[in-house]
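Reopening this one. Same input as before:
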Amino acid sequence: MSNYVEKAADMNRWLKETVSRLVERPRQVEVYHDIKYDEDDPPFVTYSVKVSDTDIGLVIGAGGKTVKLMRDLLQLIAWKPPKIRTRIEVEDPHPERRTIYEKRKRSPEFGVRRGVGAQNSR
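Same output, byte for byte:
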């Protein structure tokens, strides 16, 4: 079990260093993890990343590409023995905005193309 804990801590340090190099305020980067053990499967580790509200876009990237790449790299590292399962969560500094976005996302007009060229697709 201690091998899992050591590996999770090493991956936590790697993730913090990686995120710190991406942002403008590296001292405000916080990364912590939570390990959940299962009898039949490898442990599941959730990494929570917290950055300043001005840096969150740099961590997520255009269309989520940056955070997806970090997730993919973390999963590659995680499957080397001792295997663990991983997940990265980027904490939203403004959770109240999320509800506005989710309401907009659920509206029937979300995703409707507007502007120049939208009518030319007939």
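So the earlier flakiness isn't reproducible anymore. For the record, The beta strands are 30-36, 44-50, 85-90.
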